[in-house]
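This section describes the prediction task in plain terms. A model, or a person checking by hand, is given the sequence of a single protein chain and must write out its three-dimensional structure as a string of C-alpha coordinates. No templates, partner chains or ligands are provided. The sample shown here is typical of the held-out split.
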Amino acid sequence: MVRQLAQLYPTIINRSRAAWGVVYRSSNTTAGFAAIRSVFGRQVRRRLSDDLRRLDPDLVISVHPLLNHVAHQAIAGSGRKRALVTVVTDLVDLHRGWICATADLIVVPTEAARDLVLSRSIPASRVRLLGLPVDLGFRPPAPGERAALRRRFGLDETRCTVLVAGGGEGAGGILAQVRALAWAAHPWQLVTVCGRNERLRQRLARVRFSTPNLVLGFVDNMPELMRSSDLIVTKAGPGAIAEALATGIPLILTGFLPGQETSNVDFVTSSGIGVYCPRPEHLESTLVELLKDGGRGVTDLADRTGAVARPYAALDIAGQCLILARSHMASGQSMR
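The expected answer:
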Protein backbone atom coordinates (compact mmCIF):
# COMPACT_ATOMS: atom_id res chain seq x y z
CA MET A 1 0.00 0.00 0.00
CA VAL A 2 2.83 2.39 0.82
CA ARG A 3 4.44 1.71 -2.56
CA GLN A 4 1.12 2.30 -4.33
CA LEU A 5 0.71 5.68 -2.62
CA ALA A 6 4.25 6.66 -3.62
CA GLN A 7 3.42 5.85 -7.23
CA LEU A 8 0.63 8.44 -7.11
CA TYR A 9 3.17 11.24 -6.67
CA PRO A 10 3.82 11.84 -10.42
CA THR A 11 0.08 11.94 -11.12
CA ILE A 12 -0.56 14.47 -8.36
CA ILE A 13 2.23 16.86 -9.35
CA ASN A 14 1.26 16.74 -13.02
CA ARG A 15 -2.46 17.30 -12.49
CA SER A 16 -2.66 19.51 -9.42
CA ARG A 17 0.29 21.10 -7.66
CA ALA A 18 -2.13 22.78 -5.28
CA ALA A 19 -3.35 19.33 -4.18
CA TRP A 20 0.23 18.33 -3.43
CA GLY A 21 0.63 21.48 -1.35
CA VAL A 22 -2.37 20.46 0.75
CA VAL A 23 -0.97 16.95 1.23
CA TYR A 24 2.45 18.30 2.20
CA ARG A 25 1.19 20.91 4.65
CA SER A 26 -1.27 18.54 6.34
CA SER A 27 1.44 15.89 6.79
CA ASN A 28 3.86 18.47 8.18
CA THR A 29 1.86 19.11 11.34
CA THR A 30 2.34 17.26 14.62
CA ALA A 31 -1.03 15.55 14.29
CA GLY A 32 -0.67 14.83 10.57
CA PHE A 33 2.76 13.28 10.88
CA ALA A 34 1.65 11.20 13.86
CA ALA A 35 -1.30 9.92 11.84
CA ILE A 36 0.94 8.87 8.95
CA ARG A 37 3.26 7.01 11.29
CA SER A 38 0.28 5.32 12.93
CA VAL A 39 -1.25 4.15 9.65
CA PHE A 40 1.89 3.09 7.76
CA GLY A 41 4.55 2.75 10.44
CA ARG A 42 3.83 -0.85 11.42
CA GLN A 43 3.93 -2.12 7.83
CA VAL A 44 7.18 -0.31 7.01
CA ARG A 45 8.78 -1.20 10.35
CA ARG A 46 8.03 -4.89 9.79
CA ARG A 47 9.73 -4.77 6.38
CA LEU A 48 12.75 -2.94 7.77
CA SER A 49 13.04 -5.38 10.67
CA ASP A 50 13.08 -8.30 8.22
CA ASP A 51 15.83 -6.60 6.22
CA LEU A 52 17.89 -5.93 9.35
CA ARG A 53 17.73 -9.60 10.33
CA ARG A 54 18.56 -10.76 6.82
CA LEU A 55 21.36 -8.29 6.01
CA ASP A 56 22.63 -7.46 9.52
CA PRO A 57 24.07 -4.05 8.56
CA ASP A 58 26.18 -1.92 10.87
CA LEU A 59 24.60 1.25 9.52
CA VAL A 60 21.24 2.31 8.05
CA ILE A 61 20.94 5.32 5.73
CA SER A 62 17.56 7.00 5.31
CA VAL A 63 16.91 9.34 2.37
CA HIS A 64 13.16 9.84 2.88
CA PRO A 65 11.44 12.01 5.51
CA LEU A 66 8.85 9.36 6.38
CA LEU A 67 11.38 6.59 7.13
CA ASN A 68 13.68 8.08 9.76
CA HIS A 69 11.61 7.52 12.89
CA VAL A 70 10.41 4.11 11.70
CA ALA A 71 14.01 3.09 10.94
CA HIS A 72 15.03 4.05 14.47
CA GLN A 73 12.26 1.88 15.91
CA ALA A 74 13.31 -1.06 13.75
CA ILE A 75 16.94 -0.66 14.83
CA ALA A 76 15.94 -0.43 18.50
CA GLY A 77 14.17 -3.77 18.22
CA SER A 78 16.88 -5.49 16.21
CA GLY A 79 18.91 -6.73 19.17
CA ARG A 80 22.12 -4.75 18.66
CA LYS A 81 23.50 -1.29 18.10
CA ARG A 82 23.43 0.07 14.56
CA ALA A 83 24.05 3.60 13.33
CA LEU A 84 21.26 5.61 11.69
CA VAL A 85 22.17 8.34 9.20
CA THR A 86 19.63 10.69 7.69
CA VAL A 87 20.66 12.22 4.36
CA VAL A 88 18.31 15.14 3.71
CA THR A 89 17.40 15.39 0.02
CA ASP A 90 15.45 18.66 0.23
CA LEU A 91 17.40 21.90 0.02
CA VAL A 92 15.98 24.48 2.41
CA ASP A 93 12.45 23.92 3.73
CA LEU A 94 12.45 20.59 5.56
CA HIS A 95 9.49 18.39 6.42
CA ARG A 96 9.38 17.56 10.13
CA GLY A 97 9.95 13.90 9.25
CA TRP A 98 13.53 14.70 8.27
CA ILE A 99 14.47 15.76 11.78
CA CYS A 100 14.83 12.62 13.87
CA ALA A 101 16.41 13.38 17.25
CA THR A 102 17.62 9.79 17.65
CA ALA A 103 19.61 9.70 14.39
CA ASP A 104 23.36 9.39 14.88
CA LEU A 105 24.01 11.82 12.04
CA ILE A 106 21.85 14.19 9.98
CA VAL A 107 23.45 15.32 6.72
CA VAL A 108 22.08 18.57 5.29
CA PRO A 109 22.67 20.27 1.91
CA THR A 110 22.58 23.99 2.78
CA GLU A 111 23.28 26.44 5.59
CA ALA A 112 19.56 27.21 5.86
CA ALA A 113 18.74 23.53 6.32
CA ARG A 114 21.46 23.21 8.96
CA ASP A 115 20.09 26.18 10.89
CA LEU A 116 16.60 24.68 10.79
CA VAL A 117 17.79 21.32 12.13
CA LEU A 118 19.78 23.01 14.90
CA SER A 119 16.72 25.06 15.85
CA ARG A 120 14.96 21.77 16.69
CA SER A 121 17.43 21.10 19.54
CA ILE A 122 19.59 18.65 17.59
CA PRO A 123 23.21 18.81 18.87
CA ALA A 124 25.59 20.42 16.40
CA SER A 125 27.91 17.40 16.72
CA ARG A 126 25.26 15.28 14.98
CA VAL A 127 24.63 17.63 12.06
CA ARG A 128 26.94 17.86 9.02
CA LEU A 129 26.70 20.31 6.12
CA LEU A 130 27.98 18.12 3.28
CA GLY A 131 25.66 18.91 0.37
CA LEU A 132 23.08 16.97 -1.59
CA PRO A 133 24.53 13.79 -3.15
CA VAL A 134 24.38 13.50 -6.92
CA ASP A 135 25.98 11.14 -9.40
CA LEU A 136 29.69 11.93 -9.80
CA GLY A 137 29.08 12.17 -13.55
CA PHE A 138 27.66 15.64 -12.91
CA ARG A 139 30.79 17.79 -13.18
CA PRO A 140 31.96 20.81 -15.18
CA PRO A 141 33.00 20.03 -18.77
CA ALA A 142 36.70 19.53 -19.44
CA PRO A 143 38.38 21.84 -21.99
CA GLY A 144 36.88 21.14 -25.40
CA GLU A 145 34.36 18.65 -24.02
CA ARG A 146 31.29 20.85 -24.48
CA ALA A 147 31.94 21.24 -28.21
CA ALA A 148 32.68 17.52 -28.56
CA LEU A 149 29.44 16.58 -26.84
CA ARG A 150 27.48 18.92 -29.07
CA ARG A 151 28.98 17.25 -32.13
CA ARG A 152 27.99 13.85 -30.73
CA PHE A 153 24.39 14.98 -30.20
CA GLY A 154 24.16 16.62 -33.64
CA LEU A 155 24.04 20.13 -32.19
CA ASP A 156 25.63 23.32 -33.48
CA GLU A 157 28.92 23.78 -31.60
CA THR A 158 28.70 27.58 -31.68
CA ARG A 159 25.13 28.19 -30.53
CA CYS A 160 24.13 28.85 -26.93
CA THR A 161 22.50 25.59 -25.85
CA VAL A 162 19.50 25.59 -23.53
CA LEU A 163 18.47 22.36 -21.80
CA VAL A 164 14.73 22.20 -21.03
CA ALA A 165 13.80 19.47 -18.55
CA GLY A 166 10.99 18.54 -16.21
CA GLY A 167 12.38 15.58 -14.31
CA GLY A 168 11.77 11.94 -15.02
CA GLU A 169 8.04 12.55 -15.50
CA GLY A 170 8.39 15.45 -17.92
CA ALA A 171 6.38 17.74 -15.66
CA GLY A 172 6.33 21.52 -15.35
CA GLY A 173 4.67 22.90 -18.49
CA ILE A 174 7.43 21.97 -20.94
CA LEU A 175 5.22 22.38 -24.00
CA ALA A 176 4.53 26.07 -23.32
CA GLN A 177 8.18 26.70 -22.46
CA VAL A 178 9.47 25.17 -25.70
CA ARG A 179 6.94 27.11 -27.74
CA ALA A 180 8.10 30.33 -26.12
CA LEU A 181 11.77 29.60 -26.77
CA ALA A 182 11.66 27.89 -30.18
CA TRP A 183 8.58 28.98 -32.15
CA ALA A 184 10.34 32.02 -33.61
CA ALA A 185 13.92 32.01 -34.92
CA HIS A 186 16.57 32.69 -32.27
CA PRO A 187 20.38 32.44 -32.05
CA TRP A 188 20.18 29.67 -29.44
CA GLN A 189 19.25 25.99 -29.69
CA LEU A 190 17.25 23.74 -27.37
CA VAL A 191 17.60 20.25 -26.00
CA THR A 192 14.23 19.17 -24.60
CA VAL A 193 14.05 16.14 -22.31
CA CYS A 194 10.48 14.88 -21.94
CA GLY A 195 11.21 12.02 -19.54
CA ARG A 196 8.53 9.35 -19.40
CA ASN A 197 6.00 11.75 -20.90
CA GLU A 198 5.86 9.97 -24.27
CA ARG A 199 2.81 11.90 -25.38
CA LEU A 200 4.70 15.17 -24.95
CA ARG A 201 7.75 13.81 -26.78
CA GLN A 202 5.67 12.75 -29.77
CA ARG A 203 3.84 16.07 -29.85
CA LEU A 204 7.03 18.13 -29.81
CA ALA A 205 8.72 15.86 -32.36
CA ARG A 206 5.95 16.62 -34.89
CA VAL A 207 6.39 20.39 -34.67
CA ARG A 208 8.75 22.24 -37.06
CA PHE A 209 10.19 24.93 -34.79
CA SER A 210 12.10 27.89 -36.22
CA THR A 211 14.77 27.47 -33.54
CA PRO A 212 16.63 24.13 -33.53
CA ASN A 213 15.21 21.78 -30.92
CA LEU A 214 16.52 18.29 -30.12
CA VAL A 215 13.59 16.40 -28.57
CA LEU A 216 14.39 13.42 -26.32
CA GLY A 217 12.36 11.08 -24.13
CA PHE A 218 13.63 9.41 -20.98
CA VAL A 219 17.44 9.54 -20.98
CA ASP A 220 20.27 7.97 -19.00
CA ASN A 221 22.92 10.48 -20.08
CA MET A 222 21.74 13.62 -18.32
CA PRO A 223 25.27 14.46 -17.07
CA GLU A 224 26.50 14.63 -20.69
CA LEU A 225 23.47 16.65 -21.78
CA MET A 226 24.13 19.14 -18.98
CA ARG A 227 27.80 19.41 -19.87
CA SER A 228 26.84 20.16 -23.47
CA SER A 229 24.53 23.01 -22.35
CA ASP A 230 25.04 26.60 -21.24
CA LEU A 231 22.02 26.73 -18.92
CA ILE A 232 18.99 24.72 -17.90
CA VAL A 233 15.29 25.60 -17.81
CA THR A 234 13.55 23.49 -15.17
CA LYS A 235 11.37 23.52 -12.07
CA ALA A 236 12.86 24.08 -8.64
CA GLY A 237 13.43 20.45 -7.70
CA PRO A 238 16.35 19.88 -5.31
CA GLY A 239 17.92 17.18 -7.48
CA ALA A 240 17.89 19.28 -10.65
CA ILE A 241 19.36 22.25 -8.79
CA ALA A 242 22.13 20.16 -7.22
CA GLU A 243 22.98 18.54 -10.56
CA ALA A 244 23.15 21.90 -12.33
CA LEU A 245 25.37 23.29 -9.58
CA ALA A 246 27.73 20.32 -9.80
CA THR A 247 27.93 20.82 -13.57
CA GLY A 248 28.47 24.55 -13.23
CA ILE A 249 25.54 25.72 -15.35
CA PRO A 250 23.02 28.37 -14.24
CA LEU A 251 19.29 27.83 -13.93
CA ILE A 252 16.12 29.44 -15.18
CA LEU A 253 13.49 28.20 -12.74
CA THR A 254 9.96 28.06 -14.09
CA GLY A 255 8.00 26.81 -11.09
CA PHE A 256 8.02 24.87 -7.85
CA LEU A 257 5.95 22.39 -5.90
CA PRO A 258 4.16 23.97 -2.93
CA GLY A 259 5.81 22.68 0.19
CA GLN A 260 9.37 21.41 0.04
CA GLU A 261 10.31 23.35 -3.13
CA THR A 262 8.87 26.74 -2.20
CA SER A 263 12.09 28.08 -0.66
CA ASN A 264 14.30 26.66 -3.42
CA VAL A 265 13.53 29.61 -5.67
CA ASP A 266 14.83 32.09 -3.09
CA PHE A 267 17.90 29.90 -2.56
CA VAL A 268 18.76 29.98 -6.28
CA THR A 269 18.07 33.68 -6.86
CA SER A 270 19.68 34.93 -3.64
CA SER A 271 22.77 32.81 -4.32
CA GLY A 272 23.07 34.41 -7.76
CA ILE A 273 23.12 31.06 -9.59
CA GLY A 274 19.91 31.48 -11.53
CA VAL A 275 16.75 33.47 -12.20
CA TYR A 276 13.04 32.82 -11.70
CA CYS A 277 10.69 33.06 -14.68
CA PRO A 278 7.31 31.47 -13.91
CA ARG A 279 5.50 32.75 -17.01
CA PRO A 280 6.40 30.99 -20.29
CA GLU A 281 5.74 34.14 -22.30
CA HIS A 282 8.59 35.86 -20.46
CA LEU A 283 11.19 33.15 -21.12
CA GLU A 284 12.23 34.60 -24.46
CA SER A 285 12.95 38.07 -23.07
CA THR A 286 14.68 36.57 -20.02
CA LEU A 287 17.06 34.59 -22.20
CA VAL A 288 17.68 37.55 -24.51
CA GLU A 289 18.66 39.63 -21.48
CA LEU A 290 21.04 36.94 -20.19
CA LEU A 291 22.73 36.68 -23.59
CA LYS A 292 23.42 40.41 -23.97
CA ASP A 293 27.03 41.54 -24.25
CA GLY A 294 28.23 38.17 -25.46
CA GLY A 295 26.32 36.18 -22.85
CA ARG A 296 27.72 38.06 -19.88
CA GLY A 297 24.61 37.36 -17.80
CA VAL A 298 24.99 33.60 -18.25
CA THR A 299 28.72 33.78 -17.51
CA ASP A 300 28.17 35.76 -14.31
CA LEU A 301 25.62 33.25 -13.04
CA ALA A 302 27.86 30.31 -13.96
CA ASP A 303 30.85 31.85 -12.18
CA ARG A 304 28.90 31.95 -8.92
CA THR A 305 27.96 28.28 -9.00
CA GLY A 306 31.44 27.33 -7.79
CA ALA A 307 30.85 29.04 -4.45
CA VAL A 308 27.66 27.06 -3.83
CA ALA A 309 28.26 23.70 -5.51
CA ARG A 310 29.33 20.60 -3.58
CA PRO A 311 29.98 18.18 -6.46
CA TYR A 312 31.67 15.59 -4.23
CA ALA A 313 28.92 15.45 -1.61
CA ALA A 314 28.32 11.75 -2.30
CA LEU A 315 31.94 10.91 -1.47
CA ASP A 316 31.96 13.10 1.63
CA ILE A 317 28.75 11.50 2.91
CA ALA A 318 30.08 8.01 2.20
CA GLY A 319 33.20 8.82 4.22
CA GLN A 320 31.17 9.90 7.24
CA CYS A 321 28.99 6.79 6.96
CA LEU A 322 32.04 4.52 6.90
CA ILE A 323 33.36 6.12 10.09
CA LEU A 324 30.05 5.49 11.84
CA ALA A 325 29.76 1.96 10.47
CA ARG A 326 33.20 1.04 11.80
CA SER A 327 32.23 2.26 15.26
CA HIS A 328 29.30 -0.18 15.29
CA MET A 329 31.08 -3.21 13.79
CA ALA A 330 32.22 -4.56 17.16
CA SER A 331 28.62 -4.82 18.35
CA GLY A 332 27.68 -6.81 15.26
CA GLN A 333 30.64 -9.16 15.54
CA SER A 334 29.86 -9.97 19.15
CA MET A 335 26.33 -11.03 18.16
CA ARG A 336 27.45 -13.33 15.35
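For orientation: The mean pLDDT is 89.
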